[in-house]
Amino acid sequence: xVGNKANxxxxxxxxVLPALGLYLFFAIWPLCQGFWLSTTNWDGTAPWTxxxxxxxxxxxxxxxxxxxxxxxxxxxxxxVKDEGQGTYxxxxxxxxxxxxxxxxxxxxxxxxQDFQNVGLxxxxxxxxxxxxKRFFPERYxxxxxxxxxxxxxxxxxxxxxxxxxVLSHVQSPEELAYLRGVYSPTPQGYALDxxxxxxxEVDLQSVLSAIPGLEDDWxxxxxxxxxxxxxxxxxxxxTAVAAVPAVSGKHISAANRAVLDSTxxxxxxxxxxxxxxxxxxxxxxxxxxxxxxxxxxxIVNVACVNIxxxxxxxxxxxxxxxxxxxxxxxxxxxVLSMIxxxxxxQLVFREFLPALTGIKEWMMNPDLAPWLTIFVAVWQGVxxxxxxxxxxxxxIPQDIIESASLDGATGPKRFFRIVLPLLVPALTICLFLSLxxxxxxxxxxxxxxxxxxxxxxxxxxxxxxxxxAFRDKHAxxxxxxxxxxxxVIAIITGTQLVLTKRKEVEM
Length: 507
Hints:
Layout lengths: L1 H37 L13 E3 H9 L5 H10 E4 L4 E4 L4 H13 L13 H8 L9 E6 L12 E2 L1 H7 L7 H10 E4 L2 E4 L1 H4 L3 H9 L8 H14 L2 H9 L2 H4 L5 H27 L1 E6 L1 H28 L6 H13 L2 H20 L11 H26 L3 H9 L4 H12 L1 H16 L3 H6 L4 H4 L4 H10 L4 H29 L4
Antiparallel strand pairs: 1-3, 2-3, 4-8, 5-7, 6-7
């Protein structure tokens, strides 16, 4: 008995204690350091202690206030006096010397502006929404017509589009009456009055510029008429016309005055229809933001890879002759380099799909980009989970299945009452891996959209952390997000493991 205890203690000292020490050093210590960094305003590039300090300031404010002679000697070890530059220049420091330098500077009351402790501000900014708006879901209005668009875009609007996205947005009876007056319902849709639809800015400008006496004033008159039309302020146009010397002094002929009035009325009418439609023709949209896209990506990805992986495993757990070849085919995407996967699908989305479907833009379409990203992620990962489910299926004793068949259990009953309960251990593993993997996904998004994932609205939390740290230089905030992500992954996967473990059936 004593020998067994001695052996157990020896094994504990030889194997467990070193493993525990390595875990503390390579896991717990970096986590603690990460939490500490998350309480700072560090940008990721600025040194934790000043790179150089003026000689007089260093000697009076740092060396003169150091608590001990050993601290002063330590400072002089890593700060070298440079008479030419008039500074003390810091040498490269790593590990514990860096932390000791920080401790000394803190003890003398010197704070580096680029490395201040801000407490839990980064966390409070995350939870109170004081971040980039792209981080949270946001509703916005997408204008479907801009004042700079040609009026030909307004010539014919489909009936459902006009009623749903124009008329429903009109707020005043006068504006509604105006739109019903200039638009007529036709079998093809709502048609704009031909007189308005034929107006062209270039033609109107050409007519104004050709009127004698308006050489210096026609441009301002045109812009005034256009902007007055957009705002519906006819009085502003009349005031502007009266202020033009050539008009008020009657230096232009009556015939040219009639042309001027007609042209300005046309410009005003053009500006008015454009202003009304620019204000009323829009649709309400939802920007997913980082959090919502991450949630949708995780839910859809986890569901698809597990369902499709299980279906493929069921199909290949048969006696079909090509099952070994098909297993390899479905598993190949998982062993491909992510760069190769991105290159393959970029070629498909940019060349093949436009030619097959007639839709010119796939990858750069913000409405399609999130779903294309999810599709590629599922395509690459489903083969891996298929293998796990296949191993689980092949571990189920066939005599149980045969006994159920003899008892009259049909295919669906056998699956849901026998196969699926015995497959829960494989399901536990697959759910754990797919949940953790989806929450940590980075390479697929970054490889497919290396520089424009933000504009496409497909930054998940890990990509957002990467851009915060290395593009926007908010390393402290990025670290806070990473710490929170760690706990989110631990909570979600831990809960999943507890719930699915309870459902496991021992054979």
